[in-house]
């Protein structure tokens, strides 16, 4: 990471975190609801659901939605507060979002809609917006990508717009941007922070599977075989019925787990990934984890676990911290992939660490104690 000249608009925005959203789906809904729900959370109070009520002076109430982009006819042209309620969104509604005065603009479709999503989403007939211009006019600090899994071209297109508009970029999906040296270099050259790839939920299947894998390693137990099966009823699982779009997701989730091992498992001994779509579950996600291991004296150890969560709220608290870390990077004129925050918040960061080490690196970054090179 490197520091350089101040970013245009950074002085005007220094007390706020202005966030643009790509994809006004369930994850965006939970994120924006959270801004309302936790608006008055104080840094000196324990707050259920938040890892940090305050980060380097930034509270939840300092985060503002500045811009939003989608392709759905039920969302484009509407205020974000209305679009969050439009189908196929089906996540838990835990807070009322006031009128935000932020219109959802028409973004390009590219590969953002797969075969199954086209069955439930009608594309807007509005002309595409000049995304870079919208981001500049709205003084957006951080652009967050909530595109559907498998949106390779669309993710890269929006990363380009972030560079043009001089925004930090937080990539919440398994398209490899922050972990790609070329993209790292381009954001570094522009002195723009980059956090990615593929959001690691607060207490989701991946973080639990990683923690258990690391626990076995630390306690001298050899992991022999493991699987993680996930299914749910939101549009993300519907989209992943298209197996070609699932490849990057499986890779991201698998390497998040195997990175905790000293000796990698054979490909046939690990399976990590979504398995099916059950519409009546809505935004609930069920995960089944099995681990078969060898312990003292060659004696077997078997572990099975079921985890059920509301999928989108489970990611929102992490994104709330990620956008604030990205803004801290902007304030300090740091460009490139932020190693600590990426490793703590994401499944496929530029460098993998244990979660304890990633948390320590992130705390150091927030305090300004460590400036790491990629």
Description:
The protein has eleven helices and 14 strands. The radius of gyration is 20 Å and the shape is globular. Strand 5, helix 2 and strand 6 form a beta-alpha-beta unit. Helix 1 crosses helix 9 (311-331), helix 3 crosses helix 4 (152-165) and helix 6 packs parallel to helix 8 (247-258). It has an eight-stranded mixed sheet, sandwiched between helices. The protein has a four-stranded mixed sheet with strand order 11-10-12-13. A two-stranded antiparallel ribbon has the order 3-4. Helices cover 32% and strands 21% of the residues. Mean pLDDT is 92; it is low at 1-12. By secondary structure, it is of the alpha/beta class. The longest helix has 21 residues, at 311-331.
Brief characterization of the structure:
This protein has helices at residues 26-37, 80-83, 131-137, 152-165, 181-189, 205-218, 235-239, 247-258, 311-331, 339-345, 355-367, and strands at 2-3, 17-22, 54-55, 58-59, 63-70, 104-106, 142-145, 168-171, 193-195, 222-232, 270-277, 284-294, 300-310, 334-337. By secondary structure, it is an alpha/beta fold.
């Amino acid at each position: 990471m490197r520091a350089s000249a101040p970013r245009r608009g950074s002085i005007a925005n220094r007390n706020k975190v202005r966030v643009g959203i790509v994809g006004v789906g369930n994850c965006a809904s939970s994120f924006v609801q959270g801004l309302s729900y936790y608006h008055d959370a104080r840094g000196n109070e324990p707050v259920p659901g938040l890892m940090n009520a305050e980060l380097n002076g930034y509270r939840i109430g300092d985060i503002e939605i500045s811009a939003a982009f989608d392709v759905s006819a039920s969302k484009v042209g509407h205020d974000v507060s209305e679009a969050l309620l439009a189908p196929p969104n089906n996540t838990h509604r835990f807070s009322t979002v006031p009128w935000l005065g932020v219109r959802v603009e028409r973004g390009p479709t590219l590969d953002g809609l797969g075969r199954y999503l086209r069955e439930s989403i009608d594309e807007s007939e509005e002309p595409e917006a000049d995304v870079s211009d919208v981001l500049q006019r709205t003084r957006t600090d951080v652009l967050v990508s909530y595109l559907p899994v498998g949106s390779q071209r669309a993710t890269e297109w929006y990363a380009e717009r972030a560079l043009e508009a001089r925004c930090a970029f937080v990539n919440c999906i398994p398209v490899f941007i922050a972990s790609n040296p070329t993209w790292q270099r381009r954001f570094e050259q522009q002195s723009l922070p980059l956090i990615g790839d593929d959001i690691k939920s607060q207490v989701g299947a991946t973080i639990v599977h990683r923690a258990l894998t690391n626990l076995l390693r630390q306690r001298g137990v050899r992991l022999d075989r493991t699987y993680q099966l996930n299914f749910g009823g939101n549009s993300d699982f519907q989209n992943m019925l298209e197996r070609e779009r699932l490849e990057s997701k499986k890779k991201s989730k698998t390497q998040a787990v195997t990175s905790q091992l000293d000796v990698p498992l054979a490909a046939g001994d690990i399976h990590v990934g979504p398995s099916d779509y059950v519409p009546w579950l809505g935004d609930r996600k069920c995960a089944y984890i099995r681990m078969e291991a060898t312990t003292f004296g060659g004696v077997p150890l078997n572990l099975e676990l079921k985890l059920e969560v509301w999928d989108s709220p489970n990611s929102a608290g992490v994104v709330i911290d990620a956008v604030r870390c990205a803004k801290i990077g902007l304030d300090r004129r740091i460009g490139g992939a932020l190693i600590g925050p990426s490793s703590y918040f994401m499944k496929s960061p530029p460098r993998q660490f244990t979660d304890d080490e990633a948390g320590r690196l992130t705390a150091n970054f927030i305090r300004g104690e460590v400036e790491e090179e990629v």
